[in-house]
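ZP: hey, is the zinc ion complex queued? I don't see it on the tracker
AM: it wasn't, my bad. submitting now with these inputs:
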Amino acid sequence: MTTTLLAIESSCDETACAVVRDGREILSNIVSSQINVHTLYGGVVPEVASRIHVENISAVISEALNKAGVTMDEIDGIAYTLGPGLIGSLHVGVQAAKTLAWMYHKPLIPLNHLTGHIYANAFVTELKYPLMALVISGGHTELVWMESDWDFKVIGTTRDDAIGEAYDKVARVLGLGYPGGPKIDRIAKEGKPHYQLPTPKTDTQYDFSFSGLKTAVLQMIAREEKKGETVSVPDAAYCFQETALGMLVGKTTAAVREYKPAMLVLAGGVAANSRLRVMMEEEMKKIPETELVIPPLSCCTDNAAMIGAAGYIAYQHGLFGGLDAAADPGLMMPGEE
Ligand code: KG4
Ligand code: ZN
């Protein structure tokens, strides 16, 4: 018996729907990105995002079903993102999922967006436990320890900005535009270690902090301007990136050494970063007992197939929700409530 799920994701600025079989096989994965619109404003405008979701969601769902070649009759359940994310954006996906569940009498599987990012790795390889996941996106920086399947314990998080947010803010300061992550990633390749930025400190072992870095970049620009010099954007991007990723990789590998997971998986939009991939591979070579899994770029940024992957596990655990569910912008990880 196979399980075919329709998955819906609309937590930020991507309207996405996928059909996934048994959590591993992607029958379709449609993502309608709003990035061109938000680029005009230099960042995601929540009200604009939710309006575009409303315009696109029906077409995205139809396309996902058509491309997969399945009808609603063949769908066993509807997995959807309940939170965290932007309330207006989430609301559109939640309403669409509930409407379809009601119309077609299908079970609903509400999901935490971050579990989706983690289980996106199930498309790459069979997950091995205990597992450590580093979830790095525009809204989150979490080190998640999983003793077994669907068992989440957040052992580290950010004290202030998420790492993706720091990339986006620093890119704006450097005049690179939105989204900042890929732009800094690209331009930093031409940079040199010309500037010194302080490594942010946190008093807890596995927590992160990134907002001080943005301030340090701003202060550095002011200092250079005072001297009558202009800041080299590639050098500033390089120095910011080395400092931010140094902290990320340092704390993650320290946690891996302590917890000794069978597998370390990267997840979320920032996992697409080319320098992070190299740094992580180099450091993890020193800890061969733990297998490193870095998902392909298409699995890193927001999509609905990942919600279908996590949804399959939740479905197996019988974690169904009702028609009374409401979008939860601050939803905690399962077990962390
Ligand atoms: O996971 P995601 O698509 O959406 C959220 O759930 O937030 O992540 C988006 C974030 C943005 O902050 C974006 O700048 C960052 O991921 N990002 C990157 C790269 N590609 C996307 N950050 C660094 N390097 C990249 N190559
Ligand atoms: Zn995401």
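AM: back. The first strand starts at residue 4 and ends at 9.
ZP: great, adding it to the tracker
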